[in-house]
TrEMBL record:
Database matches in Gene3D superfamilies: alpha/beta hydrolase
Keyword Signal included in the entry's annotation: yes
Keywords noted in UniProt: Hydrolase, Lipid degradation, Lipid metabolism, Signal
GO molecular-function terms, A-Z: hydrolase activity
Signal sequence interval, chain numbering: 1-31
UniProt keyword annotation of Lipid metabolism present: yes
Cited Pfam families: PAF-AH_p_II
Entries under PANTHER family matching the protein: PLATELET-ACTIVATING FACTOR ACETYLHYDROLASE
Name of the protein described by the UniProt record: Dienelactone hydrolase family protein
Ranges for region Disordered: 31-58
């Protein structure tokens, strides 16, 4: 299958060397409507594909910083009129490289990828639920913009911290240590809540701290499950290709009481479906598991689409003849090689399931009809969907 890419590549040959490092991981306009009104009993139930594409809001984007110094990327809803005609932001892979690899990159070389939002656009006037996002091992805060930006378009403030104990920069620099990811996420929730309560801040009264969700990929899936155990502010969580009890965290003994969803890549060789099934069994109800039969580990991120070739960024490394650490080869390519399901074909279903779960718990849907009939609605993509109440 031919891979599609959203990446914009500058100085192609030299920029590919930078991309390699990511691959080896992991008058004024009229006022627009404030957003969708809460669903009512008289409205038709949302379909099992209702949230596959962008929602009614535009998307803004800003960076914040935790007291630890770690950066937090924030996507948030805007009025469509406030972003119309303005360019979408980008992130530069080179900025995530450790010093030992920066030396391989010629001065001025960049590799950029769409980051999903318009920088510093004004946030829409409403109190929005908060969603924190946790990236994978050797990942970074903007690794899954296909999802984080989409969530903002459906009316969520989404905040993703860099877990500096296991970012791409740290791992490729050979300095990965004991993770601080759960504390990073707790600090992120606190930061957004404090900023929302601060007069004259750009977020003043824009975050509804009574409605909080958590979403994570791979090691981030483990992190958000552990976060839900540790932090009662979290109302629901979604683990994508990763979970704590039964999958990635052998020492975990507690499971969250909050409703959770596991998204599974049926072709994932990093966190195989069998391990995710064990995690699902260990979870407390209400719970759901959704399997994307042909998807690999990186289908829940942008990483297969940053760069050219059917192997994602790994193919760039091979083209340049740059050696790749053996322990990261599988992590860099799982989900990026035919006949695995292409990321761009998995993303609509992933977006739908995550948004549907958030809406069913945080509102306005109140029930989970959009999570029914997923196998029939997504032929060849969703191969299994089960729940327990």
């Amino acid at each position: 299958m031919t891979r599609l890419t959203r990446a914009t590549r500058v100085l192609a040959t030299t920029a590919s060397a930078a991309a390699l490092a990511l691959g080896v991981l992991s008058g004024p306009a009229p006022a627009a409507p404030a957003g969708p009104a809460p669903a009512t009993a008289d409205e038709a139930a949302p379909s099992p594909t209702a949230y596959a594409e962008d929602g009614p809001y535009g998307v803004g984007q800003r960076s914040m910083r935790l007291r630890s110094g770690a950066l937090v990327e924030v996507w948030y809803p805007t009025r469509p009129a406030d972003v119309a005609g303005r360019p979408e932001g980008t992130y530069d892979i080179v900025e995530y490289l450790p010093p030992n690899l920066l030396g391989l990159v010629p001065a001025g070389a960049t590799v950029t990828h769409p980051s999903g939002g318009v920088r510093r656009a004004p946030i829409a006037r409403r109190g929005f639920p908060l969603v924190v996002f946790s990236h994978g091992f050797a990942g970074f805060r903007q690794q899954s913009t296909f999802l984080t930006a989409a969530l903002a378009s459906w009316g969520y403030v989404v905040a993703a911290p860099d877990h500096r104990s296991r970012t791409m920069t740290t791992v490729l620099g050979g300095k990965a240590g004991t993770t601080t990811d759960v504390q990073d996420l707790r600090d992120t929730i606190t930061l957004l809540g404090t900023t929302s309560r601060t007069k004259k801040s750009w977020l003043h009264k824009r975050v509804d701290m009574t409605r909080v969700g958590a979403v994570g990929h791979s090691a981030g899936g483990r992190a958000v499950e552990n976060l839900a155990v540790a932090d009662a502010r979290v109302d629901t969580w979604v683990g994508m290709a990763g979970a704590a009890t039964g999958a990635l965290d052998e020492g975990a003994t507690e499971v969250p009481a909050q409703p959770g969803v596991l998204l599974v890549g049926g072709a994932d060789e990093i966190v195989p479906q069998e391990r995710m099934e064990q995690a699902y069994v260990a979870m407390s109800a209400p719970k759901r598991i959704v399997v994307l039969g042909g998807a690999g580990h990186l289908a829940f991120s942008d990483l297969c689409e940053v760069g050219d070739g059917d192997a994602g960024l790994l193919s760039v490394a091979e083209l340049l003849g740059v050696p790749i650490p053996a322990n990261l080869v599988r992590l860099a390519s799982d989900g990026c090689i035919d006949p695995e399901l292409a990321s761009v074909d998995a993303w609509p279903a992933v977006r739908h399931v995550v948004v549907a779960q958030l809406r069913s718990v945080l509102g306005p849907d109140q029930t989970a009809p959009a999570l029914d009939g997923l196998v029939e609605a997504w032929p060849g993509v969703v191969t299994d969907s089960r729940s327990a109440q």
